[in-house]
From TrEMBL:
Name the UniProt record assigns to this protein: Molybdate-binding periplasmic ABC transporter
Keyword Oxidoreductase: no
Subunit architecture: The complex is composed of two ATP-binding proteins (ModC), two transmembrane proteins (ModB) and a solute-binding protein (ModA).
Xref: SUPFAM superfamilies: Periplasmic binding protein-like II
PANTHER family the UniProt entry points to: MOLYBDATE-BINDING PERIPLASMIC PROTEIN, MOLYBDATE-BINDING PROTEIN MODA
Organism ancestry: Bacteria, Pseudomonadati, Pseudomonadota, Betaproteobacteria, Burkholderiales
Species this chain originates from: Pandoraea nosoerga
MF GO annotations: metal ion binding; molybdate ion binding; tungstate binding
Keyword annotations from UniProtKB, A to Z: Metal-binding, Molybdenum, Signal
Keyword flag Signal: yes
Amino acid sequence: MSVKAAVTASSEFPSRELHSARASRHRAAPLRRALVTVATLASLCLAGHAGAQQVFAAASMKDALDDLCATYARQTGKKPVLVYGASSTLARQIEKGAPADVFISADQDWMDYAQKHDLIDASTRRNLLGNALVLIAPATTTGEIDLRPGTDLDARLGNGRLAMGDPAHVPAGLYGKAALEKLGVWPKVQGKVAAADNVRNALLLVARGEAPYGIVYKTDANAEKRVRIAGTFPADSHAPIVYPVALTKQANRTDAEPFYQFLQTPAAQATFERYGFGRP
């Protein structure tokens, strides 16, 4: 996957204009740099491992999946190539011919998209993991927020921004918007959203102190010491967070299927749970 292709895919879903052009450019700069860095690393990895099984996975899986792939490499001598990003971007990249063998989405919708466009082997589709949605704040702050109907999140934000995955296409952003709508606070805060290209970039905005609050998965919050969980969204405020996995139609089954099966073993599930993931 080329850097140009990765950056182009992320720009297919432009964020809404939420503030002045000057502020927008200022806040978007770290996101663009992070995206280019990820795309560059992914491109280099793919170029150097053309024969390895190539796994396209939701950005929120990075820490757990890195750990599991290291274990898999020790056991088999084969190291998968991991490409992380928003599920929407990854699905679009596979559609454009990116060499993916395994696809793991952070929601059902983008796996549905891949299935509808005949990008995956539907017979291999499985629900792999579950997760929770949380509100985070910088670790240097204090105070909890009871996320219930009528919560005055707008007042808490003040002049600050609410970092979250782009609610137009990023799964974490879609879950976040649904939860805020259910709680009745979306109309008041939607104009303060700092929309990120994936959930890990939203996490970084809060970790760096560029946003006072953010919405991410519980596993993301667990992975970043510079943030704390300020509140947990009720499970019934959004659709269940499920990560489906499938082999792609173009997969090299000889290499990809053993790793696909490995992800579903009790040992792998225990590792995922250690990082905060739940059962689907």
